[in-house]
Amino acid sequence: MDNYEDMDEQINDAANKIIAELRDGLKKNESSTSSRVAKIIGYQNISTKDIDEMTSKEKIITFFKAAIDCDHTTLKALTEGTSSAGGYLIPEELHSEIVRDIADKGFLQNEVTNIAMKTNVMTIPTLSSGPQITWTEEATEKSTTTATFSTATLTAKKMAAILYSSDELIEDSSNIDIVKLIIQLFAEKIGQEVDRIIVRGNGTTEPSGFTIHGSVGSRTCVGNLDFDNLINLEYDLPAKYNKNAKFYAHRNNIREMRKIKDTTDRYQWQDPVAQSQPATFHGFPVVEQNDLAESEIYFGDLKKAVWMGTKGGIKVKVSQDTTNAFTKDLTAIRVVMRMACNVVLPQALKKLVSIP
Predict the structure, then answer these.
(1) Which of 11, 168, 204, 330 has its CA 20 to 30 A from that of 350?
(2) pTM of the entire structure?
(3) Distance of CA 50 to the CA centre of its chain
(4) CATH number of the domain that residue 224 is part of
């Protein structure tokens, strides 16, 4: 009996030894990302060497956790010493991933011209009428021609979007799998607000959306939308802008466009020929934009018509002081950026206004 008890004890000792070795092995083989981030945050001051050794994903995770923990030393190191009073610029790695995520989705800011602004106000010269061409005889006096320029102004305004993150997400934010979700949350929030501004920014406290610009030519549609209305809209646009022209319409208007037929009873709506391609109406791409009013359909080259400017990078502030955040165990992440928007070439865009 004693022999059996001794044997059980030996087996238990051996099993416990194996379990201990397995645990040590798991710790040693733990993701370098998790161990490096854990080492940096809360255990030691971050150094330039630490940052240089980090991957892009590790920098994103570290920035996110440092912002939540109000770790100013880490935040300053990752953002080259940005003052905490105005928030922290997000690292270039996170900014690039957010921009890439927005570009991969159907946000309207992908349809307009994007520029970087060095000052809060930028004046853009636009050609309103070009030089006139004349033919002359040999050795005769040549008439002078002039080009008329007008200007459009981009004025950067501060945009603040609040993203609520659950405490559970924050606790798991050192997990590399959460990086994609963090990027998607930022990109979705920023993309939605920028799109709203491009369409209907009020032009006073916000940048100017193209729907409030008085110089965009329009025609009216009385009663139900029909094929003739849209044909006329197409021909209102100067031919030189046709190559890259698209329809921009609310979902409810698109529903009606899908039903429209020509005189031979053929539908003018064509579904995408490939997954990455847009649907078309009468051969022109159609972009669904639900910030547009149902009473308006736009047609034109938005990249030539509308410019969007951004000044500086995206800043982040974190707070748990809001009532919503405190009562629901959420942390409010305030995303701040400066952007401008305006119509710089109204000739490249036309609209159809529906009157009941």
Answers:
(1) 204
(2) 0.73
(3) 30
(4) 3.30.2320.10
